[in-house]
């Protein structure tokens, strides 16, 4: 069956096997209704008897659907997919959207009520809030008052607040002097230009995030680790013995009080393993875990896009680190090396560099395998769109994201697929089968 909810792929005429027949049926019927209302459809008598699947295949291969028609179709599709997702028996929750890349000073992106109304219209069921953005929340008030947090929940148009993200504050816990001026913009004006004071400010901000998360009933905050060692990533000049150990010991020293407080409040830190941080792959995560004494609050925000750009086995990663994966950014990417540039990117802009973030479905991440392995290891939290793309507009990316995520949610089986061939058994029967009795 064609995977209808992956509209971008469908409209390109790709053949995709479906993973969720119920969602596919919704998409087929929605698209068919849209086609029936199209004033320019050709050969009406010929197509009138076609099924939605026939329509999709012909419509896709002829590529007659313009961007405006596609946008209108998505607007019809979103609430239907959302309604079904709300009743599905999926272990993974979704779709949700990280609001950081969409916030702005104009409606509907300038306040929590406005932007959640917009997200809801696209079919999202949850929102991840950037805790540093005062347009949608007052972090200090959220840390102090459960009443304020209850009021915050009432401003989301029925959407669930999935997590409070703390990436920018986490970045500033530890920063190499080479990046001081570049990272200053993440901090409050009064602490800029003073790295020591800025780090203390960031640590306090993370403690507010912990308290606010607890008041909101949220068990995890996605974050960054910060970086002292990143400028020494490539071993030239040669790193002196002990440098890496010293860097990780210092990173752990700064994070340990934060993690201990998080443990008191029952909140996990899910580090996004991201270039520019000292935690950017499995090996660096393990090293940090070791120097923090295998701290129970050291966990992972899984984002396969960063692993695509490192040529890392992002599917196998899930099996290795599954128990530590506490959050999930659904983000796509592609890596297309050339004779001119590879992993390091050649200082090229995003459109020219070999490694690029892409809208969902436009990159190389095998999301069917990602959702399958996350389900297999027992991940049961939210699938959150983090949109970044240098080619596609954010509005289109957001509109396509909800049905894309919805189509990949897996309904956990209620019984084994081969139950029909099974038979009752007991110890005596098992022993006879083994030839023991």
Shape: globular
Biggest β-sheet strands, sense, barrel: 8 strands, parallel
Number of helices: 18
CATH superfamily of the largest domain: Divalent-metal-dependent TIM barrel enzymes
What is the CATH architecture assignment of the largest domain? Alpha-Beta Barrel
Q: Report low-confidence residues grouped into runs of 5 or more.
A: 1-19, 42-48, 55-65
Give the terminus-to-terminus CA distance.
Answer: 49 Å
Biggest β-sheet: strands ordered side by side in the sheet: 3-2-1-10-7-6-5-4
Helix % is: 40-55%
Strand proportion, as a percent range, falls in 5-15%
What does this structure look like?
This protein is of the alpha/beta class and 437 residues long. The protein has two domains: 1-65, no CATH class; 90-413, Divalent-metal-dependent TIM barrel enzymes (TIM Barrel), CATH 3.20.20. The protein has 18 helices and ten strands. The chain has helices spanning 7-11, 21-36, 44-47, 52-62, 67-87, 112-121, 139-144, 146-153, 167-171, 180-183, 195-216, 243-265, 282-291, 304-308, 314-321, 367-376, 394-408, 427-433; strands spanning 93-98, 126-130, 160-165, 220-223, 268-272, 298-302, 325-330, 332-335, 355-358, 382-385. The strands form two sheets. An eight-stranded parallel beta sheet has the order 3-2-1-10-7-6-5-4. Strands 8-9 form a two-stranded antiparallel ribbon. Helix 12 links the parallel strand 4 (220-223) and strand 5 (268-272). Helix 2 packs across helix 4 (52-62) and helix 15 (314-321) runs parallel beside helix 16 (367-376). The N and C termini lie far apart (49 Å).
